Structures are given as C-alpha cells and as structure tokens.
Automatic annotation (TrEMBL):
<dbReference type="GO" id="GO:0004519">
    <property type="term" value="F:endonuclease activity"/>
</dbReference>
<dbReference type="Pfam" id="PF13391">
    <property type="entry name" value="HNH_2"/>
</dbReference>
<protein>
    <submittedName>
        <fullName>Restriction endonuclease</fullName>
    </submittedName>
</protein>
<keyword id="KW-0540">Nuclease</keyword>
<feature type="domain" description="HNH nuclease">
    <location>
        <begin position="146"/>
        <end position="197"/>
    </location>
</feature>
<keyword id="KW-0378">Hydrolase</keyword>
<dbReference type="InterPro" id="IPR003615">
    <property type="entry name" value="HNH_nuc"/>
</dbReference>
<keyword id="KW-0255">Endonuclease</keyword>
C-alpha cells in the first residue's frame, strides 16, 4: 500500500462518509468496516482511522466534551467540515457518490456485505440517500440506542426530527436536528406529548401525566425529569428544541 500520500478530495469524502456513520468510540484501526474501507482506498487501517480522528477534532461536540480527537487536522479537513455543515444534503450525496466510486471498482465490495451501499443506491433519489444517511448518522451518534430508554433494537429505533423539516428544509438533514428514539417515543415526541428542556431532560405533556394507566407509567412517566443519554457527536441544537417546546409540545 502507498503511505504518506496526500489525501485527494474523493478520499477525504470517503473518510467523512465513514466518520459520520461510525460511533466515536469505534474509530479504531481494528474496526472491521474501517479495515474494509481502507483496503478500498489502498491505505492502511491506521491511516484511515487517524484521518477520522483528525476529522473528529473539527467536530464542536467532540471539542466541547473534552475529547480532542487527533490534533493535526489539515486545512482540507476543516474546509470540508465547513462544507458539510453548510449543506448537509448535498454533502451526504457527494460523500455517498465518492464511496460508490471506490466500492464499485473492487469486486470484493459488492452486495455480500450489507454494511456497504450497493449498486442499487445509484438509482435512488437524492432525498432517499439523504434520509438513509441521516438515519445512519443519528443511530451511530447515539450508539444505536434510544436516548430516553436505552432500547437497542435497531428495527425499533427512529431517527426523529426535532424541528419538522417542512419548517426549515435546509435543516432537515442536520444531525443536530435529530434524536434517536424508540418508535413509540418518536410518535409521542412528534405529537407533542413529550419534549426536552434546555438541560436535555424529559418533559411530559399533561395529557400523559393525567393518564392513570400502567402502560403509560412504564413507557413514559418513569422518564419524566430524567436526562437523555447524550450522543457522542452532533448534540441536539437548542434552537431546534426551543421550537419544539413552543410550537409542538402540548403543555
């Protein structure tokens, strides 16, 4: 493998693609998916994982949490982070296309591995690609767990929007506008039956609090006032939560 060669824009897009869908704690040269993608890039797993750690150092959430990533992020890393933050949807599409470019050149990357995007994604609409990327990023940020209950069954988890995308379409794929919730808590959040305060604690609507029902007690009331499990990156933005509290939540 060629080492210490410059990172092309396409290679860097692939690194961002993988960073976005990988939990911070799983950025390691031993991660099987990092190993597979590094082979596609003709780089070592250490090289790719180090680049992902460089990217992490550009992430405000990582910086604020005291986890500094790996110092030495290049100007290209920082510029690409700014590009992503400015236009999430187009960046997701561009990064997926960059991944497909390398994946489709290698026979070993075909549909035998469900973790990789297959050729059928080439014909998906841009909206579908963006939605799939949004879900992957939200679930990985919350370590595939509901942030309220810690439920960890992916098929029962939803990448929930805080501010409805119809209100501000430009923010619909911003991962800071997302929460990982179980399907029932997603429905309750969407209907304004629960929200989060500025301390990221669960607040229930009186419509739930006044229910005398063991199921409601178990699913909702036991979490009233409790803090959510924070994501490892892309923390919910207060601007979006404030909108939910004032415009959607039913007191």
């Amino acid at each position: 493998m060629t080492e210490r060669r410059p990172w092309s824009r396409n290679d860097l897009l692939v690194a961002f693609y993988l960073y976005n869908k990988t939990s911070f704690g799983k950025i390691s040269a031993r991660n099987p998916e990092i190993i597979k993608v590094s082979n596609l890039l003709n780089r070592t797993p250490s090289s790719l994982s180090m680049k992902m750690a460089n990217i992490a150092s550009c992430d405000p959430m990582i910086q604020e949490s005291g986890r500094n990533g790996l110092k030495g992020a290049s100007k290209a890393d920082k510029d690409m982070w700014a590009e992503m933050s400015t236009d999430w949807e187009n960046f997701y599409i561009t990064s997926v296309e960059a991944f497909l470019t390398i994946a489709n050149k290698h026979e070993e990357s075909e549909s035998t591995d469900s973790n990789f995007i297959g050729r059928e994604r080439l014909v998906q609409s841009k909206a579908r690609i963006g939605q799939n990327q949004f879900r992957q990023i939200i679930l990985s940020s919350y370590n595939d767990k509901c942030c309220i209950t810690d439920l960890s069954i992916p098929k029962l988890l939803v990448a929930s929007h805080i501010m409805p995308w119809s209100v501000k379409p430009s923010e619909r794929l911003n991962p800071c506008n997302g929460l990982c919730l179980s399907s029932i808590h997603d429905s309750a959040f969407d209907q304004g039956l629960l929200t989060l305060n500025s301390n990221l604690e669960v607040v229930l609507s009186s419509k739930l609090l006044h229910q005398n029902n063991p199921f409601v007690d178990y699913c909702f009331k036991q979490y009233e006032g409790k803090s959510i499990t924070l994501p490892t990156k892309f923390i919910p933005k207060e601007e979006f939560l404030a909108h939910h509290r004032t415009e959607i939540f039913q007191q």
